[in-house]
Each structure stands twice: as C-alpha cells, then as structure tokens.
From TrEMBL:
Lineage: Eukaryota, Fungi, Dikarya, Basidiomycota, Agaricomycotina
Domain of life: Eukaryota
Organism per entry: Mycena sanguinolenta
Name by which UniProt lists this protein: F-box domain-containing protein
Length: 268
C-alpha cells in the first residue's frame, strides 16, 4: 500500500472539522481530501469556505446536545444529511443557504414556535416534548385505492370522497406538481404503515421530527371563503420516505411535500 492510500484511509473517518484542518496540512493531503467516500462531508467542506451571516447562530456544542437529547429520549437516529450538519458543521452560523430550524432554536434559547392561544392558553408554551411524534395522513379508502391501484389523482370528479383535502386544498395542495408529490408519497408507503382502517376511512402513520412552524398568509377563496395554511414542517424518521420533509397543519391534516432532504429545504 503506497503513501496516498494510507493517507486516504486515515482521512476517511475524520469529522468535518478535522477534514478542514487536513486541507491545510500539505498539497498532497489537500488533493486527497476530495476523494473520501462521504458526500455530505464533502459538500459541507465546499460550503465551509463561504461567508454567511444568520440572525440566529447556534454553537456546535448546543447542536450536539440537541441531537443527543433527541436520539436518547426517543430512541431514534436523525436522518442524514441533517444529522451530520447539526453535529459537525463547525460554525455557529448555518451553512450557506440554510437556517437552523425552530426546534433547534428552542433547544438553544427557548425560542417559542408553537401555536399559543389555539388551546385558550396563550401563556403556556407547548414546544417542549413535541420533538418526535407520530402524524397521520387521513383519507377515504376509495381515495387510497384510486391512488395506489389505479394511479389516478382523484380530484374534481371525486369530490364526494373528500379527495380535495389531499389534492385540491389551498394554499399548498392544489398544484399539479404537489398532487404528483402527494401521490408518490402515498404509493411509496408499505401496507404496514396503514393505521385505523375501517368505516370507509384509513390513515397512514409516520414517525416524524419537528423542524419549524410555517404560516402562509390567509387568502380569500371564492368557493370556500378564507383559507389559511399554518402548521409544522417535519422530517420523516421511518419507512421509504425517511429523510424527506413534509408539512402537516395538524397531526391528522396533511399539507404537502416540502423537500427530498435537508439539503433541498430552503424555508426561512
């Protein structure tokens, strides 16, 4: 085994901070670092040489403590690349083009992002204890059959089956692109994900990690009156959609696909 191969073996398990240091050792090491088998670390390495300023910096030690809390308390492993970004990005500023989610900000500073007042308790913060929880995607069995068995987007002609709640509901669920993503999401789930089947209705259950609250401004719809979209972006923790980011208005009211993974998520 020659020297470059030995050096590459040494570089492979290094954390992002150590890889950054390795690029300053010598020209040979700088040339070998990009050859390691770690796409997430290499992408972060490329971003580490760019300046970024965020109004909500969070130190690496605090982010590591957040990951330890989540994974210990709930016996889960946070999906990549989100986990590596939280535990290895050396700066307190987020990587360029990203932000630290509300849930991490709550852990760091007590920043409240819950819907205070919705339960007539405006002085009570409910952010604590809501990090990991199950959410349901509820739909009539006929809608599920049309999507899974026939590959049909059940809109307009299937109004009687409440399909508009998943495929034609402003503000997020009404575009062809979002409908296609919703169909893909449903069809990807195994039968084991089905929860509470019966009485014409069924649900798909997902274990999720809360990220940030979103709010889309209220609009006036000619047919349905005032429409709002307010809920939580979550990271899917299990199944074939693990690592994807989706939106839920409530624990049972799905509000659409957001990103394939944390790299693609640009909600601010």
């Amino acid at each position: 085994m020659n020297v470059p191969e030995l050096v590459l073996q040494f570089l492979e398990p290094l954390t992002l901070r150590d890889l950054i240091s390795a690029t300053h050792v010598c020209q040979q090491w700088r040339a070998l670092v990009p050859k390691i088998d770690s796409p997430t670390r290499l992408r972060l390495l490329g971003l580490s040489f760019r300046d970024v300023t965020s109004p909500h910096p969070i130190s690496l030690s605090v982010r590591i403590s957040y990951v330890e809390k989540i994974e210990t308390k709930y016996s889960v492993v946070i999906p990549e690349p989100y986990r590596t970004i939280l535990t290895e990005w050396p700066s307190s500023q987020p990587p360029p083009g990203m932000h630290w989610p509300h849930s991490v900000r709550f852990h760091a500073s007590g920043f409240c992002y819950c819907r205070r007042g919705s339960d007539n308790s405006p002085d009570r913060c409910s952010c604590e204890g809501e990090d990991v929880h199950d959410v349901l995607m509820k739909m009539p069995e006929e809608v599920y059959r049309l999507v899974v068995e026939e590959g049909v987007v059940p809109v307009e002609e299937h109004e009687r089956d409440y399909s508009w709640e998943l495929f034609d509901k402003p503000l997020r669920l009404y575009t062809p692109e979002q409908n296609s993503q919703t169909m893909r999401f449903i069809r990807a789930q195994p039968l084991a994900a089905i929860e509470g089947r019966g009485d014409r209705w069924m649900s798909l259950k997902f274990s999720t990690l809360r990220l940030s609250r979103y709010h889309v401004h209220t609009t006036l719809d000619d047919n349905r009156g005032f429409q709002t979209s307010d809920g939580i972006f979550v990271l899917i923790l299990d199944g074939p959609s693990r690592g994807q980011i989706h939106a839920w208005e409530t624990d049972t009211w799905y509000d659409g696909f957001e990103a394939e993974d944390f790299w693609e998520w640009n909600y601010l």
